[in-house]
From TrEMBL:
SUPFAM superfamilies referenced in this protein's UniProt entry, alphabetically: P-loop containing nucleoside triphosphate hydrolases (SSF52540)
Domain UvrD-like helicase C-terminal, residue spans: 286-571
Domain of life, per lineage: Bacteria
Similarity-based family: Belongs to the helicase family. UvrD subfamily.
Protein name in the entry: DNA 3'-5' helicase
Any single biological process term in GO: recombinational repair
Domain UvrD-like helicase ATP-binding: 4-285
Positions that bind ATP: A25, G26, A27, G28, S29, G30, K31, T32
Length: 753
C-alpha cells in the first residue's frame, strides 16, 4: 500500500493498527482519505480478512463513498467488508438474531409519524388529550432514554442519568414499547438499544460478533450518543482493536443526543489508547483557518489541536454590519450577483443561517435578483402522503402484524371503513389477543363467526378484495420482482384510479410521485443481487432517516446557490460562504444563553464549523435591527465576532454611519465606511455589546406569559402560561395557526424568538 502521499501524522494513523486509537481529525484535514487508507492497509498489507473488519459511520452516503474508494485501492474482494451506519448494522444484527428478543426477522421499523400514532393512541387510552400533552413530548422523552442506552427492563441503577420509574412519561414509554413488540416493530432508537439488550442478555451472541469483528473503526465519533458508545465498547472489548475518528471541535448535535464526553473521555475507557492529531488543513486559506482556530481555542471542552495550513494566505474575512435584516439579505444577494459576473459558479456559493426562519428574506431577494438557489434539507420525497400510503401497503405485505400500517390503508382509497368500523375491528383484535390483520383474514374466511361486528355487504366485499390482494402478493413475493408487485398493489388496490379520477393538479403531482416510487424500486432491483420488498423498505427507512441534514444529491447539482442551516453544512465545503445573522440571541441562540457555558461552547463549535466550510472567501453578516414575529429586535453583534483577532478581517458598515459603542474592534483601521445601504444610522438606536461574562452571569430568560417562541415543528407561537420548575417545567403555547399545545420544556424543541 503506497502511503507516500500522506503527511506524517496521517501515516501514523494508518500504520498504528493494534490496540485502541483515537484520531483527532480537524476540519479539512484529510480524515476520510486517512480512514479509507487505514482500512485498505489492513486488507492489502496485513492481509486481514474483510469479513473481520467493521466500519461504522452516520450516513449511507459516507458509507458508500468509503466503500467505493477502498474498492479502487485494493485487489481483494471486499464484498464481506462491513462499512455501514450504526442503525443499518444494528438492523442487520437484529434481523439475524430476532428470535432471541421475541421478534420475527421481518419486523417493521417505525418512522416518526408512526411513532406519533402509537403515542397518541396510548395518551387517548389514558384519557389524555394531545392539547394537554403533545405526543412529541413523550417521543423526546423516549428518545432521551434510548440515546442513553435504556431498554425495557434494564437495570436503572446502572444509568448515569436520572430516571423516575414512577414518572407518568415512563409509564407511557413502557406501554409504547409493549405496543411495538406486539406489532413486531422497532423504532429507530430501538435498533441500537435492541442490540445492546441482545448482547447483555445473551453473552454467547456478543462473543460471536466479537470473534468476527477483530478490527472496529468509527467515523464522526464526536456525534455518537451514549448508547452508540456502549455498542462500540461491547464490540471491541475482546480484541481492543478499535479506532475512532472525530473532532470534538465539531460536536454540534447534543440536541440529537450526541455526547461530547465520548470523545473527551476516550482515554478513561481505554487507558492504553494512542492519541493522534491531524492538524494540517487542506481546505481553507491560511487566514480563515487561523481566525477559526482563535475562536475555537476559547472553548474548555476540547482535547486541543493547533490547526495550520500550507494554503495561500487568502483574502481577509469580511464582517458586514447591516442596518436591518432586509439590508442583510439585499447585500448577500447583490454580492452573489457580483460573484456570478466574476465567473464564480453558483454551485460554489453557500449561504448559512442559524435557524430555518432566517431563510425567507434571503430567498425573496435571491428571487428578485434571478439567482437560482436550493434550500438543502427541504421537503423529502418519502414524507409525501401518497408515497407513505403505498409504502404502508408494502409494509402490510411484508409484515401483516403491522397494524399501524394496515389501519392507515384500510380505507385508502375509501372502502366504507370509517373510524367507527375500524374501532370495532381493533377492539375485536384486542379481545382475541391478535393483530388487526388476523381479524380481517378470519372475517373473510369465516364471515358467519363475525356477524356481531355488523358490516354492510359493500364493506365486506371491499375488505374481501383487500385481503385477497395482499395474500396474493405475499404468495408471489419470493418469485416476482418488487416493482411488479408494487404496480399490482398500486392499480388493484384502486389507489391509482382514485387519483386519476380526481383530474386536478394536486392529484397529477401525486401520480407523478408514485411513478417516481416505481422508478426507485426498479433502480433498487438493478443495484441489488436479491431485491425484495422487505429489503427495499429497510433501505429507504434507514437511508431517509440517517441522511445528513445537509447531504446534497450531486446528481441534481445544476449550478444553484445552496441555502442551509449551519447544522446542515457540516461535512460540506464551498469556495464562497456567507454566514448570516451573527447576532446575540440569534447566533448564539437564546436557548444556548439559558444553558450557560455548555450551551455557549456548543454554539461556538457551530460557529467554527461555519467558518471552516469556506475555502476561499468568508463573509459574516449581522443586522443591527431584525424583524422577528412582528417586532423589531436590536441584539448587537455576536460575541463570536469579538473573538476574531482584528488582523484577520475587514469590517464593513453603512456609509455615513457613526461608530457603535462597546466595540473596540470596530474602531481600528480595518473598518471600511463605503458600504452604502441608502439609510441613515439615526433611525437605529445605538446598542452596547455585552461581554461574555455579563451574558453568562445574567439572569436566564424564562418562558414567561406573553413570550414569543419558535417550535421546530409547529413554528411561531405565544406562551399562554407556564408552571413547574426544572425538569417539570411546562408551558402552554398558542401557535400562529390557532392551535394550542402544552409541552414539557426539557424535551420540547422550543426557543425564544
Amino acid at each position: 500500500m503506497d502511503i507516500s502521499g500522506l503527511n506524517e501524522q496521517q501515516k501514523l494513523a494508518v500504520l498504528k493498527t493494534d490496540g485502541p486509537v483515537m484520531i483527532l481529525a480537524g476540519a479539512g484535514s484529510g480524515k476520510t482519505r486517512t480512514l479509507v487508507t487505514r482500512i485498505a492497509y489492513l486488507l492489502e498489507d496485513l492481509h486481514i480478512s474483510p469479513f473481520q473488519v467493521l466500519a461504522l459511520t452516520f450516513s449511507n452516503k459516507a458509507a458508500r463513498e468509503m466503500r467505493e474508494r477502498i474498492s479502487s485501492m485494493v485487489e481483494a474482494d471486499i464484498g464481506s467488508l462491513q462499512i455501514t451506519t450504526f442503525h443499518s448494522f444494528c438492523a442487520r444484527v437484529l434481523r439475524s438474531e430476532a428470535n432471541y428478543l421475541g421478534l420475527s426477522k421481518n419486523f417493521t421499523i417505525y418512522d416518526t409519524s408512526e411513532q406519533k400514532a402509537v403515542v397518541k393512541a396510548i395518551l387517548s387510552r389514558h384519557g389524555v388529550s394531545t392539547k394537554e400533552v403533545s405526543p412529541f413530548e413523550v417521543m423526546y422523552y423516549m428518545d432521551d432514554l434510548k440515546n442513553n442506552g435504556h431498554y425495557p427492563g434494564r437495570d436503572l441503577s446502572s444509568a448515569d442519568y436520572e430516571i423516575e420509574e414512577s414518572d407518568t412519561f415512563f409509564t407511557y414509554y413502557q406501554q409504547y414499547e409493549a405496543e411495538l413488540h406486539k406489532a413486531n416493530a422497532l423504532d429507530f432508537g430501538s435498533l441500537i438499544t435492541g442490540v445492546i439488550e441482545l448482547f447483555e442478555k445473551f453473552p454467547e451472541v456478543l462473543k460471536r460478533y466479537q470473534d468476527r469483528y477483530k478490527y472496529l473503526l468509527v467515523d464522526e465519533y464526536q456525534d455518537t450518543n451514549r448508547a452508540q458508545f456502549e455498542l462500540v465498547r461491547m464490540l471491541s472489548e475482546k480484541s481492543r482493536n478499535v479506532c475512532v475518528v472525530g473532532d470534538e471541535d465539531q460536536s454540534i448535535y447534543s440536541w440529537r443526543g450526541a455526547d461530547i464526553r465520548n470523545i473527551l473521555d476516550f482515554e478513561e475507557m481505554f487507558s492504553d489508547a494512542k492519541i493522534l492529531k491531524l492538524e494540517q488543513n487542506y481546505r481553507s486559506s491560511k487566514n480563515i483557518i487561523e481566525a477559526a482556530t482563535q475562536v475555537i481555542s476559547r472553548n474548555s471542552q476540547r482535547k486541543g489541536k493547533s490547526m495550520w495550513t500550507d494554503n495561500p494566505h487568502g483574502e481577509d474575512i469580511e464582517i458586514i454590519e447591516c442596518l436591518n435584516d432586509k439590508k442583510e439579505a439585499e447585500f448577500i444577494s447583490n454580492k452573489i450577483v457580483e460573484l456570478d459576473k466574476a465567473d464564480k459558479p453558483y454551485k460554489e456559493i453557500a449561504v448559512f443561517y442559524r435557524t430555518n426562519t432566517q431563510s425567507r428574506l434571503i430567498e425573496d431577494y435571491l428571487r428578485k435578483c434571478n439567482v437560482p438557489y436550493r434550500v438543502v434539507g427541504g421537503v423529502k420525497f418519502y414524507e409525501r402522503k401518497e408515497v407513505k400510503d403505498l409504502l404502508a401497503y408494502v409494509r402490510v405485505v411484508v409484515n401483516d402484524r403491522d397494524s399501524l400500517a394496515l389501519s392507515r390503508i384500510i380505507n385508502v382509497p375509501a372502502r366504507g371503513v370509517g373510524a367507527t368500523t375500524l374501532r370495532k375491528l381493533e377492539e375485536e383484535a384486542i379481545q382475541n389477543n391478535c393483530s388487526l390483520w388476523e381479524i380481517l383474514d378470519r372475517l373473510v374466511a369465516s364471515p358467519e363467526d363475525y356477524k356481531h361486528i355488523r358490516l354492510s355487504a359493500k364493506v365486506k366485499s371491499a375488505l374481501n378484495h383487500l385481503v385477497t390482494l395482499i395474500n396474493e402478493i405475499k404468495v408471489s413475493s419470493d418469485s416476482v420482482a418488487p416493482s411488479s408487485l408494487y404496480e399490482k398493489l398500486l392499480h388493484e388496490s384502486g389507489y391509482w384510479e382514485f387519483l386519476k379520477s380526481s383530474k386536478d393538479y394536486e392529484s397529477q403531482a401525486r401520480m407523478e410521485n408514485l411513478e417516481e416510487l416505481s422508478s426507485a424500486l426498479v433502480q433498487f432491483e438493478q443495484s441489488n443481487d436479491n431485491p425484495t420488498l422487505m429489503s427495499f423498505l429497510e433501505t429507504i427507512t434507514l437511508d431517509t432517516t440517517t441522511k445528513s441534514e445537509g447531504e446534497i444529491d450531486e446528481e441534481r447539482d445544476n449550478g444553484e446557490v445552496s441555502l442551509m442551516t449551519i447544522h446542515g453544512a457540516k461535512g460540506l465545503e464551498f469556495h464562497h460562504v456567507f454566514v448570516s445573522g451573527a447576532e446575540e440571541n440569534v447566533f448564539p441562540s437564546y436557548r444556548s444563553l439559558d444553558e450557560g457555558e455548555t450551551g455557549i461552547e456548543e454554539e461556538r463549535r457551530l460557529f467554527y464549523v461555519a467558518m471552516t466550510r469556506a475555502m476561499e472567501k468568508l463573509y459574516i453578516t449581522f443586522a443591527q435591527g431584525r424583524m422577528l414575529f412582528g417586532q423589531l429586535r436590536f441584539n448587537g453583534p455576536s460575541r463570536f465576532l469579538t473573538e476574531i483577532p482584528e488582523k484577520f478581517y475587514r469590517w464593513r458598515k453603512p456609509s455615513g454611519g457613526t461608530q457603535t459603542s462597546g466595540q473596540s474592534w470596530g474602531s481600528s483601521d480595518n473598518v471600511i465606511d463605503d458600504f452604502n445601504q441608502d439609510s441613515n444610522y439615526d433611525e437605529v438606536p445605538v446598542y452596547q455589546v455585552a461581554s461574555y461574562e455579563e451574558v453568562v452571569d445574567a439572569p436566564k430568560a424564562k418562558f414567561a406569559k406573553g413570550a414569543k417562541v419558535v417550535h421546530s415543528l409547529y413554528g411561531e407561537g405565544t406562551v399562554l402560561d407556564s408552571s413547574g420548575i426544572g425538569k417539570e417545567e411546562k408551558i402552554s403555547i398558542k401557535f400562529s395557526d390557532g392551535a394550542r399545545k402544552k409541552f414539557l420544556v426539557k424535551f420540547a424543541p422550543i426557543v425564544l424568538a
